[in-house]
Amino acid sequence: MAALLSAVTALGESEFMDPQLLVVVLVLAGIALIFAELFLPSGGAIAVMCIGCFLASGYFAYKAWYLTQPIFWWTYLGSVAVIIPATIIGAFQLLTRTSLGNRVLLSAPTSAEVTPYQQDLLHLTGLIGRHGTAVNLMTPGGLVLVNGERLHAVSEGLMIEPNTTVEVIAVRGTRVVVRPVAASTSAAELSQLAKEAEAAEDEIDPFRMDEA
After folding, report:
1. Residues 150 and 135: beta-carbon distance below 8 Å
2. DSSP secondary structure letter of residue 17
């Protein structure tokens, strides 16, 4: 880099080169080298030349404007502070739209890749509340037939005889959890009876109890 800066400095001090023109040329060269660094493997050599171009550009901008036209100097600094990150971002955006970028930059994984069997899980979850039939003896694992589809299932810990009507109540991994419909019906009946008993107790007249 030192040799490159010395050569550019010697060129700028020549009476045939305008320092202001060199500022523009070196900034454009630095922008081009940013793109080249991303697309061409160089082991960092292009990055070194890019940094050298911007440093040399700053040197000639200082020489041309700092003492005589300071507003140009500060405008140059502000412009470079915006141009460099904007160029890097733009180069990366362009890189992602090329076949080379697709090989170099890995795309983000999809939700299906992050959560295996996501579609199967959604399908099984949609069967909750459906009725089916036990295909074989469940001890407690086995097969059930739901909507004409054979599914791996597990009971709540009870043995279920073949051809017993079952209800899907949950999903556990890639299996559905089932229970006999009779058991769920009995639970519902017991719940209903408990509610009726509570309602009957609320309707008892306290004055009738005192009279008794």
Report:
1. yes
2. S
- Given a contact cutoff of 8 angstroms between Cβ atoms, the answer to whether 152 and 132 are in contact is no
pLDDT at residue 68 in the model: 87
Question: Does residue 139 sit in helix, strand or coil?
Answer: coil
Per-residue DSSP letter, 129: T
Tokens of 26: 């070196």
Q: 121-130 burial by CB neighbour count: b if 16+ within 10 A, else e?
A: eeebeebeee
Q: Quote the CA–CA distance of 179 and 182 in Å, as a whole number.
A: 9
Q: For the whole model, what pTM was predicted? A: 0.42
Domains of the chain: 2-104 (no CATH), 118-200 (2.40.50.140)
Q: How far is CA 91 from CA 28, 34, 38, 86, 98, in A?
A: 14, 8, 7, 8, 11
Coil vs helix vs strand at 131? strand
Least confident range of 13-17, 46-50, 90-94: 13-17
> What is the per-residue pLDDT for 211?
46
Residue 105, pLDDT score: 61
**Facing residues of 141 across strands?**
154
The 8-class DSSP code of residue 160 comes to B
Rg of the chain in Å (alpha carbons): 39
Alpha helices in the chain, H assignment, sequence order: 2-12, 19-39, 45-61, 70-96, 99-104, 111-114, 118-125, 181-202, 206-211
